[in-house]
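Human: We require from you a protein record containing the residue sequence and its fold in token form, and nothing else.

Assistant:
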Amino acid sequence: MTDKRRSITRRHTLGLIGGALAAPAYIRDLHAAEVTMRLSHMLPPVSPMHSQVLEPWAKEIGEKSEGRIDVQIFPAMQLGGKPPQLADQVRDGIADIAWTLVVYTPGRFPLSETGSLPFMVTTAEKTSVALHKFMEEMGMDEYKGVKPLAFHAHAPGKFHMREQAIEKAEDMKSLKIRAPNETFGKALEILGAEPVFFPVTEMAVGLANGVIDGTLLPYEVVPVFKLQELTSVHSAAAPVGRGFYSNTFNVLMNERVYEGLPDDLRAVVDDHSGVEFARRIGANFDAFEEVGRKLCEEQGNTFVEVPASEVENWRERVQPVIDDWIAMLNDKGIDGAHAVERLNALIDAEST
């Protein structure tokens, strides 16, 4: 080998060593994670929640921990069980983290579920921030044995109807409408509709066969179920007040896993949880709405806006649903009137 070739080879070798030393630690230690966490959720990997919220969040945790935490995501219940079992799976250590839908276990987390009452939502972002603050103030005892990382809501649900536009309560008379949760089902009944309860996975067949006349969901789910083809008219509340409903969710972590982390890694988790994580998830859910609405527009469907005055009229009429909820909270030893009043106040404060 000539002296010149020896010099080039030596410089190349030293360059590689120097490059490795200069590379970020999380790249050097990519395969040497100290902690591996399994995150479970109910949706397929094509869902926006998976691809645009959970995957980026897990990647950030890995980067900020310099590769010492590896969050592995298991969508579509790949760790087994059914969606209502997710909270227990976290508590029992089957999953280390889970994203769960509160109304899948009605009555079990009543303060969390208060955010799913009729007319408790403005935007997903603002409502999520209010809900997280509310839970930090009043609801953490519901989650003994787990570490809540965020509470959030989806964007306001809309009526997606096969034929009938919903603009006033009389338009719902005798229509079969899939209810998104138990309390809004009671509200629909008061307003004249016939609420129907079955899993969202069966909804598309129900619409296609005419078993139901419509459903209540955010635009976010339109692409998943091709609602733009199964329905022809969409009714939303005027954006100046409260929406019809939202369902509430949480991101939970096994408490033993959280407490067992070294202080610096626990700080990474803390920095990526809390009210700002709730805000981030809510903002994403607001953005998801545009995709679904655009598909309905491209289909040539009709859009109806329910005036704010009509929404307030509905809200007053369904007050017995809220009163029943307050009584249920009272029976559980919770000041129900204060809880509902406080969450409303926080939502109003975030939305002004």
User: Anything to note?
Assistant: Residues 2-30 have pLDDT under 50 and may be disordered. Residues 275-298 form the longest helix (24 residues).
